[in-house]
Amino acid sequence: ATVSEPAQKCCTENIQPFLASILEELMGPVSSGFTEVRSLFDKEVNEIIQDFQKTNDITKLKENVDQLMNLPFNSVKMEPCYLKVNLLQELLQDLKSRFKVYHIDFVIQRTQNFMQELMENAVYTFEQLFSPSRQADSAKVATTMEKVKLRVLK
């Protein structure tokens, strides 16, 4: 009871007025990272579609889709996504001194984990929606992949 009122006053005067601007500042790198995840997924599926249109090889298509399933665990391909979030390191340094924010690395790591999870969900959903169509007429497979990709991105 004796701490509640001073803590409430401190929070109301020294933290709450800045929360909106802090959130806006932090969301820049986070949004940028998630946009990069979306772009990477789009690029990878487009490459699969283009490869299939050139070859019409169902076996190669299956291999490419299987490789797509490993995309979230491919650190080289996911690195550009993760780098976008590393900008939080600089932004959080200012918050660390002003508001005693600790565990900056944890915030960045958790954000990167969410990015990987989002990619896992995207490739899994793509595979689940597309797999029944793999055996379809090869002329329709590329169109179906494009539709599935758009559905996943939506």
From TrEMBL:
Pfam families: Niban2. It comes from the Eukaryota. InterPro entries: Niban-like, Niban_1/2/3_dom. Residues 9-154 form the Niban 1/2/3 domain. Belongs to the Niban family. This is NIBAN protein. The gene is Fam129a.
